[in-house]
Design the sequence.
């Protein structure tokens, strides 16, 4: 199981972007190998070195499936721990599914276009010093 994560490449390489977005940044705690992430990207016609900004929607879709893969793996493992306080059930699998759902809604909200192509996704179109003051219009 290969593992590669360089924080300085999050904005320039899809593999590192997906690792960061899924929280798989520590080799000992990672649930996704480089091979698994490479496969998720390849399904969308991308490589680990693809630009995550230019290919934003495809990379976010790979991130969604990454969260789902992690959730499936965690759900297959025992999520109950017996502690000094009592029995504790982990919610890690459900949290990954919530993150996947949130990203899926983000894609739907932008109509499948990259977020930077949808000005409304940012909540404002006013740029101080460039646009006329909206109060005076």
Sequence:
């Amino acid at each position: 199981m290969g593992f590669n994560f360089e924080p300085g490449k999050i904005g320039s390489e899809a593999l590192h972007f997906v690792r960061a977005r899924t929280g798989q940044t520590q080799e000992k705690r990672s649930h996704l190998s480089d091979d698994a992430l490479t496969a998720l990207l390849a399904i969308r016609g991308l490589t680990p070195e693809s630009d995550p900004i230019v290919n934003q929607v495809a990379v976010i879709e790979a991130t969604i499936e990454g969260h789902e893969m992690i959730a499936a793996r965690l759900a297959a493992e025992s999520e109950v721990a017996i502690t000094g306080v009592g029995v504790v059930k982990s919610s890690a699998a459900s949290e990954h599914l919530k993150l996947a759902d949130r990203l899926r809604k983000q894609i739907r909200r932008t109509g499948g276009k990259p977020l930077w192509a949808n000005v409304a996704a940012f909540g404002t179109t006013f740029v101080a010093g460039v646009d006329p003051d909206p109060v005076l219009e």
